[in-house]
Amino acid sequence: MTTLKCTCQWIDMKGEFTPDTNDAIGLAVCHDPRTFGEKGSEPFLICDEHAKRKSTFWKILPLPGQPTEAWHAIVQFDDAWFRVVPDVAIEAIKKAFPHHAQDILGELRWSEVNGCFYFTKWGMYVGVELDGYIHT
Question: pLDDT digit string (tens) for 69-90?
Fold first, then answer.
């Protein structure tokens, strides 16, 4: 069986792509609500080193056909804790705060305690429910 390799590439100081030859641990998908939203970006193979550097809205999925017991720790963590912002919530924020939506969407976080997404603006905690209902 061929080992899947990371498909991330950095751009070096000369502007050249630097291919990665590390073994892939999963598939990276971006769910940034400012760009890809609920559907997410096209997945690509990612190694442990790159996955450790992922930002807030990147989720690491298991490799195709990989049994649960073989999932990397980052994949297990994302499976348990990562929350995708539903498109209905994204649209509600854009409608309610048209001039601030991009900033708000970039700051949106999940609250395990309250079971909703939230952001802080104008000195207020603002909750955003999964159905798009916004409350303070």
Answer: 999 999 999 999 999 999 999 9
